[in-house]
Write a structure and sequence with these properties.
- The complex is a heterotetramer of chains A (370), B (293), C (416) and D (297).
- By secondary structure, chain A is of the alpha+beta class.
- Chain C is of the alpha/beta class and 416 residues long.
- Chain C has 2 domains: 206 residues, D-Maltodextrin-Binding Protein, domain 2 (3-Layer(aba) Sandwich), CATH 3.40.190.10; 205 residues, D-Maltodextrin-Binding Protein, domain 2 (3-Layer(aba) Sandwich).
- A 5-stranded mixed beta sheet of chain C has the order 2-1-3-13-6.
- The relative contact order of chain C is 0.17.
- Chain D is an all-alpha fold and 297 residues long.
- Chain D contains 13 helices and no strands.
- The chains are: A alpha+beta (370), B mainly alpha (293), C alpha/beta (416), D mainly alpha (297).
């Protein structure tokens, strides 16, 4: 039993089931991020936790008490919305204390709570303004203030940073993380941005098509994605997924991958059970940062493969340079050090850290577990 | 000017601008014409009117017709003028406008923020109801009012006007609330605000522009109604339009046109005032509500 | 569906039981007499009743010669909230009596001897199935011609007595550059003229079989075509600006000498008198040429609506007051009409009024008193309006005379 | 509505409140609009004359109705009137709105002048209009007295043209309102798009024709609904202006229905004409409402 349990929960609109048997258990103080492309059902799930959408079947519990049929205001939760949803006709102060007022908290207490929160978020000077007079970042703070002041069991965030510009988004991200570390509250956070998911969360639920594709720590999700969807959704640039054939060379399973000229290169697996797949087609997943120039190869790795392939495009990004080549008939991206001497059209020698490579069953698109 | 006079990107030349002004002024004249005829002839003695020249300014100015229309013109057997009927109209219009606007606002709120199955069909039915020709409802309505004991009373008239106004007020508010962010409602729900608290504290304070449209529309329609007023009012609740009609339509005897015109302007004064005072918010309200897709 | 069923039973209820609204001691009177003179005349009645301790609740609804008031009446009756007394005309009274909505005034009528003093032709519209249901106020006769005496004298015209003399007079006036006939192009005015014209062609028997018995052979017969031809002649002698003109503006044309004649009911006299004109000196009144014997009439009455199954004392008092000779005289002098009872002294009346009273008595005695089509005293509203449609369409040039006669048969058959 | 058994009363109430709040309006609508429509349709199959009566006569009222040339006139007039009224109001309203949107100096005053006719009923302005249109004392007379002796304007007296005077007065009353709707629409258009189009070299004419007017679609639709509703209900105007004349030349279905139901004591025929009117309205409005409301989902 966790702090927040989502137990076998489904959601249907009429005959259409949009969420299928979701099972997530969140511990107290955890920062769970629901991530996925738009329409994956993550916001619906959040709304169900909030009590804004009904649960079709299953159960949601907070602190072991069922929340089914309990009104949103009685769940002791707070929510920060994508548009901030600040009441335009009320001052910032009123916005923050509205919920307390609705819950019958006396005015002196409300004011104390408001002042504390304003101090915490450094918005004391904004309390008498109307939301219309605030900048995006200020609104964001007020929205968080409104959630914080309630001192809820669970915080819910619905894409709170998506309306901010890139720089502010990074700042606020850090801010939220600091707040979480400082207050230790339980948070469920919805985003479509995998970087936010990775940076903020203690655990991530990757969702697609109404299913939880994978639930795990950021590291688990990144290193051992459950399937191709998770693998390609998390990480930027996305993981390269290319067709390969498994062969046994020197008693070890290797992936046979076609290069730009059709010639095959052998990339030895670290996973011994890949021998079971000898002679079969698989999909090979290699993250861009594991294909490097020879000098930058991970020294701790026990399994570095080498290959020479032709560079199609180079994209210097300052800190790194991305290189596109063709492998298995697909464009494959590699991440070089910025000082690597790469040139479009030229052949280049790459190091591939096969320790980090994963293989997928082409039929089920699930990862072949070692 | 409170209406969003925006910085139009269109640039026009001097000649074109002059032409535009000319056309605009010409139409202003066209729109003013009937009012001009009414005003000018309401301050003339009767013999000047019967002498012809309806466009001419009075040679002798007189405000006698206005006084007469207001306080001593023959309406029925009593020479009461229009004044008692003016108050009858006020007593009918104010509650009818208030109730239909509040109901329209609540309906719009429910239909956009508390959606349920078949709500669109329900709204469609309400909208279609706007199109019912009033002539066909007279007899059944009379019967219903009789059954409810509201025949011949101001409350009966209020009911009638509310019933046939809800369609429009609902339309206005629904379109307005449709673009009102639903997240605000959800935030308020989480904050613990109930159905009415959300409406009262969150939506209503932002509903000014559309309320103006709804009030103008309803006020004008109800104040100007004659058919329902004549049919369902009692002797002591006849509205201004019925009295004006009695004044103007008197079948025999000398027609005091100057008094008729003065009476007509008096009867129209409240609606004119509403348009002049609130008209500036009108375009803004339309912008916010009814012309959005 | 429910509401409709309720309505059905409830209307039946309302019609049989009647309803109660006005206070026991008040009479609520629905009428359309809102002009100064009429209201003054009604005030005589009001004061009379108030002298007896009966209050008067006034419910004026003007417009369309009572049409608007009839709509209101229908709403009031349907709501079970009928006024005590309602101004009514001709067939409307019979229709309401047939609905069972009207009170039986026979006790008052017997006590005051109405049967003897009210002309039989008028009783047709005040008595239904032997029961008095309304109190007649006046008799208007509609086949009058009003003429400007100065204009006629200047052109050497005497009051015409035949159609030929009349057309000759029209030609003379036209040649003199005067609009021969002042007319307002409204359906009821067109038909008012048509009444007289048809009477002049058809005679009293033909008029009765055409418009009262609705005999199709007469309605569509050659004489009807002739009547329409005469209407065309009249149309040719009306100015081009006639359409939609109110009758009193047409009267004003005669008063001002812009036009020679106007065919209009006796209420037109009030306009002349208001303008300070003297009958016989400044203006002439005579029957439409060829109808000197006949009087086409309409009568204003007050229907008494059944309030509790029997006539209330207030209704009896009101009815009695209406039929009192003093009120009949006072009211009709103002209104231009003649009393509904034939035993009222003509002393207070002017020349035209005196002639009207004499004509009425003579016509009543010789069975030449007949209801006017134009004013709903020949046919029910549906037929009346069907005739209006045809007459107006013909007058405005949509039909030629033969087509008009044929259309008349058709329109009446639909409306019957 | 799936409700959990353990939901507390207040929460249940909150779930039902929206429908509870809507229900009075719905009840009123069902009884006073749809109930009455059904009643009226039923009456059209009965022998009702002075008051509703319930003798079933089948389609007799309809066959009588279609034999009345008067009814045909009113249908034809409705066609002419609706077409011209909606067309002219839209064009005029749009033109005035565009002109008024050119940073006009006295915009507030002009707007009020254009809008005020909507505030007045024809019971108020009817006499003024009648005078104005009357050749004897109105525009024709004034123009001639100013020296333009050949000026003629006698439409109201002419059976063939009288309906156009009705259109004129109706346009006078509502075109300002339509102007306001279009003005609101114009003010809602993103200025950036206009600037972009100008940089693309679009002339003012093309700017309006290709960029701005197509974006006013919602305003067009709202205007259409309001105008067609007003056109169908046009009644006071005809009564005040022409009384349906000359002859029956300006009769419209609403005046037809009124006169048969109330003046002529042929309630059955009146109800039949009302039924046909309602069917026509439904035929126009239902597809429109369907398209509009579906889109918004």
């Amino acid at each position: 039993m966790g702090f927040l349990d989502i137990d076998n929960t489904t959601k249907s609109y009429g005959a259409v089931e949009v969420l299928h048997k979701i099972d997530i258990s969140v511990e107290e103080g955890e920062f769970l991020v629901l991530v996925g492309p738009s329409g994956c059902g993550k916001s619906t799930l959040l709304n169900m936790i909030a009590g804004l959408e009904e649960i079709t079947s299953g159960e949601i519990r907070i602190k072991d008490a069922t929340m089914n049929g309990v009104h949103a205001s009685k769940r002791n939760i707070a929510m920060v919305f994508q548009s901030y949803a600040l009441y335009p006709n009320m001052t910032v102060g009123k916005n923050i204390t509205f919920g307390l007022e609705m819950h019958g908290v006396p005015k002196p207490e409300r004011d104390n709570a408001m002042n504390d929160v304003a101090k915490l978020l450094q918005i004391e000077q904004l309390l008498d303004r109307k939301p219309g007079a605030l900048s995006g970042g200020q609104r964001q703070r007020v929205a968080m203030g409104r959630a914080l002041v309630r001192n809820p069991d669970v915080f819910l965030f619905d894409e709170p940073l998506s309306n901010l510009d890139a720089k502010l988004r990074v700042d606020m991200r850090t801010e939220i993380k600091k707040l979480h570390q400082k207050l230790g509250t339980t948070i469920v956070y919805v985003t479509h941005d995998q970087i936010e998911a990775m940076t903020l969360s203690t655990r991530i639920a990757v969702m697609n098509g109404g299913y939880v594709q994978q639930l795990g720590t950021p590291q688990e999700i990144y290193d051992t994605p459950a399937n191709i969807f998770v693998a390609t959704f998390m990480g930027s640039p996305a993981m390269n997924v290319l067709p390969a054939k498994v062969a046994i060379e020197n008693g070890k399973p290797t992936a046979q991958v076609a290069l730009h000229d059709g010639s095959l290169t052998s990339l030895p697996f670290s996973q011994d059970n890949m021998a079971d797949w000898a002679g079969k087609d698989i999909l090979l997943g290699i993250r861009p940062e594991t294909i490097t120039d020879e000098d930058a190869a991970d020294r701790k790795s026990t399994n570095i493969a080498h290959m020479t392939n032709r560079i199609i495009v180079t994209e210097p990004a300052g800190s790194d340079t991305f290189v596109t080549m063709e492998m298995g008939g697909k464009d494959v991206i590699a991440r070089m050090r910025s000082d690597a001497e790469v040139q479009a059209g030229a052949d280049f020698s790459f190091a591939v850290n096969m320790e980090k490579a994963v293989a997928f069953d082409p039929e089920t698109e699930t990862r072949i577990v070692p | 000017m409170s209406v969003a006079t925006q910085d139009t990107a269109i640039r026009t030349g001097r000649v074109v601008r002059t032409l535009i002004y000319l056309v605009l002024l010409l139409f202003a004249l066209f729109y003013m014409l009937p009012l001009y005829v009414m005003v000018v002839n309401s301050v003339k003695p009767l013999d000047e009117i019967t002498g012809g020249g309806m466009m001419n300014l009075p040679q002798v100015w007189t405000f006698e017709p206005w006084l007469k229309a207001w306080s001593s013109a023959q309406i029925g057997v009593e020479p009461t003028g229009l004044s008692p009927y003016f108050w009858n109209s006020i007593k009918m219009v104010v509650p009818a406008v208030a109730i239909s606007t509040v109901l329209g606002a609540l309906n719009g709120y429910v239909l956009t923020k508390w959606r349920f199955k078949y709500d669109t069909i329900l709204f469609g039915l309400m909208l279609f109801a706007c199109f019912i020709p009033f002539q066909i409802v007279l007899i059944p309505m009379a019967r219903m009012l009789g059954l409810m004991g509201m025949a011949g009373s101001t409350s009966g008239l209020v009911l009638v006007h509310v019933v046939y106004g809800i369609g429009f007020t609902t339309l206005y508010f629904r379109n307005y609330y449709a673009v009102f962010p639903t997240e605000l409602v959800r935030a308020a729900q989480i904050d613990g605000a109930g159905f009415f608290q959300i409406f009262w504290r969150i939506l209503l304070p932002s509903s000014g522009p559309i309320a103006v449209v709804s009030i103008i529309w309803q006020f004008t329609n109800i104040w100007n109604d004659f058919l329902f007023g004549a049919s369902f009012a009692g002797a002591d609740s006849q509205p201004m339009t019925v009295a004006l009609n009695n004044l103007v339509q008197a079948s025999h005897g000398v027609k005091e046109y100057n008094v008729h015109f003065a009476g007509a302007i008096l009867a129209a004064l409240p609606t004119l005032l509403v348009y002049i005072v609130a008209g500036r918010y009108f375009v803004r309200g339309l912008m916010a509500g009814s012309v959005k897709g | 569906m429910r509401s409709f069923l309720n309505t059905k039973t409830a209307i039946a209820l309302a019609l049989t039981v009647g309803a109660t609204t006005a206070h026991a001691e008040d009479v609520e009177v629905l009428h359309w007499w809102t002009s100064g003179g009429e209201a003054a005349a009604l005030n005589v009645l009001k004061d009379d009743l108030e002298g007896q301790g009966i209050g008067w609740t006034d419910m004026p609804v003007a417009g369309g010669g009572g049409e608007q008031a009839m709509t209101v009446l229908r709403a009031r009756v349907t709501a079970g909230n009928a006024p005590t007394a309602v101004q009514g005309l001709g067939f409307d009274i019979i229709d309401w009596a047939n609905q069972g909505s009207l009170a039986n005034l026979n006790d008052v009528a017997a006590a005051e001897g109405w049967d003897a003093v009210v002309p039989a032709a008028l009783q047709q519209f005040a008595k239904v199935d032997g029961a008095w249901v309304s109190a007649p106020v006046n008799v208007h006769s509609t086949n009058w011609v009003w003429a400007n005496k100065q204009v006629l004298d200047a052109n050497g015209i005497a009051a015409p007595t035949t159609w030929e003399e009349f057309t000759a007079a029209l030609d003379t006036l036209k040649a003199a550059g005067i609009t021969p006939i002042a007319h307002g192009g409204q359906a009821w005015q067109d038909t008012t003229v048509f009444d007289a014209v048809a009477m002049s062609v058809l005679g009293i028997d033909g008029y009765r079989s055409a418009f009262i018995d609705l005999d199709e052979s007469v309605l569509g017969g050659d004489e009807m075509v002739e009547a329409f031809d005469r209407m065309a002649v009249i149309r040719a002698n009306v100015d081009d600006n006639f359409s939609g003109r109110d009758w009193n503006l047409a009267t004003a044309m005669v008063i001002n000498g812009e036009a020679g004649f106007q065919m209009m009911g006796d209420w037109a006299k009030g306009e002349f008198l208001n303008a300070g004109k003297v009958p016989g000196e400044d203006f002439l009144c005579f029957r439409f040429p060829g109808t000197q014997e006949q009087v086409t009439f309409n009568a204003d009455q007050f229907m008494m609506f059944d309030q509790s199954g029997e006539v209330s004392p207030e209704q009896a008092a009101l009815a009695s007051a209406i039929l009192s000779p003093s009120f009949q005289s006072a009211f009709n002098v103002v209104k231009g009409s003649v009393p509904a009872r034939t035993d009222v002294s003509d002393e207070a009346f002017d020349a035209c009024g005196k002639q009207g009273m004499a004509d009425l008595a003579a016509a009543a005695a010789s069975d030449n008193l007949v209801g006017s089509v134009a004013h709903g005293h020949a046919n029910p509203a549906s037929v009346k309006n069907a005739i209006f449609d045809v007459v107006t369409a013909h007058f405005n040039g949509e039909y030629d005379s033969a087509t008009a006669a044929a259309e008349l048969v058709d329109a009446v058959s639909i409306a019957k | 509505m799936a409700m959990q058994a353990n939901a507390d009363f207040k929460t249940k109430l909150q779930i039902w409140l929206p429908k509870l709040v809507l229900s009075p309006s719905v009840a009123l609508m069902v009884v006073f609009v749809y109930g009455f429509i059904i009643f009226s349709v039923y009456l059209s199959f009965t022998d009702s004359r002075l008051l509703p009566s319930y003798g079933w006569v089948g389609l007799e009222n309809y066959s009588k109705l279609w034999r009345l040339s008067h009814w045909e006139t009113s249908i034809t007039n409705m066609g002419i009137f609706a077409f011209l009224y909606i067309g002219i109001c839209t064009v005029l309203g749009l033109s005035l709105a565009i002109f008024l949107d050119q940073k006009i100096r006295a915009e507030g005053v002009l707007r009020t002048i254009y809008l005020y006719p909507m505030a007045l009923s024809f019971i108020v302005t009817g006499t003024a209009w009648k005078w104005f249109l009357d050749p004897g004392i109105g525009l024709e007379n004034v123009m001639q007295s100013w020296g333009w002796t050949s000026f003629e304007f006698d439409w109201i007296k002419n059976s063939d043209f009288a309906i156009y005077t009705v259109v004129l007065a109706a346009v006078w009353q509502t075109s300002g309102f339509v102007m306001a709707m279009f003005l609101a629409g114009l003010r809602g258009i993103d200025n950036e798009i206009l600037k972009a189009a100008q940089m693309d070299g679009a002339s003012n004419w093309n700017l309006y024709r290709r960029i701005i007017i197509p974006q006013l679609r919602p305003a067009f639709l709202s205007a259409f609904v309001i105008l067609s509703h007003l056109a169908i209900k046009t009644f006071d105007l005809v009564i005040a202006l022409t009384g349906g004349g000359p002859g029956r030349a300006t009769e419209l279905p609403a005046t037809f229905m009124y006169s048969y139901t109330f003046s002529r004591n042929q309630m059955g025929i009146g109800a039949a004409s009302a039924t046909i009117m309602l069917m026509t309205i439904a035929a126009i409005m239902i597809p429109y409402l369907y398209a509009e409301l579906r889109e918004k989902k």
